[in-house]
Design goal:
Oligomer: single chain
Order of helices and strands: HEEEHEHEEHHEEEEHHHHEEEHEHE
Helix content: 25-40%
Structural class: alpha/beta
Distance between the termini: 69 Å
Length: 346
Amino acid sequence: MAHRVTVFTFISESRMDQVDTERRSRLLALKLRALIREHLGLSGDPDGRVEVFAPGAAFITNDAVWLLIDGNAARALGGVLAWGTKFELPIHLVVENDSGLLARRAALFDVDVTVWHADERVLLPALAEPHLPTTQAKPEHLAFTELIQSSGADALVEHGIVVGEVRGLEMCRVVDDVVSGVARLEVGMGVNDREAFAMVHGELPTEQALRNVIDAVAIHREHGANVHPFNQFGAERMHRWRALQDPTSIGFSRLDPVDPPVKRTNLKDAVPCAAIGSTDSGNLSAAVFVHGVDLDVVPFAVDTASRLGIDEVTIVARRQDVTPSIERLANMASVFVRFAFISSAT
């Protein structure tokens, strides 16, 4: 009697991810070549070669480097400059979003780079968008700063939003009630946390609620504290908080927090933060704080200096986070970029 044997082949999840990535990369390369062909008015594919470029696709011709960013492009410029400049050719950066931001930042580097906005099959030259205007906080929101400070948190205003931070970690925010429009102080880290806190502790007086939160969080934001969720978020803002307590630790005689060039979309993503002050040598400088290796910290930093109208910026980071690529990017900037190193402990 014959027996039928069925053989099942299992492909690991990592292998499937790799196959999907390679397929996506090929499709993006085809898309980029089609965009170049249409833009240059060619009858066939342009002469050149495809190169592996993790954020999207790359195509190198005899006279240019063409790069296409896949997805969110807002923080892509650092990687583009670090990778693209090795060919010593003009760079053409093709994006589908944030082209105005990238065009503004690209102009702050001594590099031949052109930003294009892809609209279907047409490439449009990106126009540099202006910096965000300064937004004043509402008086009724500023009225909560005394309560925030008396509870032991630091009251800060960023792009017109009043928040309370515990050693750099936002733990309360002033918002307008969606129904009544009345300003109120909500306790928690992020909108979901604030909603959950209100459901569980809504009966607590706001000052008492704040004090409870501060007591629970502050011990985990101490220098050298054991790893804990409360010190894994906002590490760059904790670096800024420490520098504000002792500006001389990073070579400043005075230091104040300042709005970053773009608004934060959430509290969990690691995004540099900024300050402004006088260095020990008497120069007015921006200070940009970062935690972890971040190629885009240099475009972020020079954009911060540009928004403030000054020509010097200090990148404050752990020494191991400043790679040779980041140092090379700093040398490409049209403003003076210096580095201040801090302790490797969070």
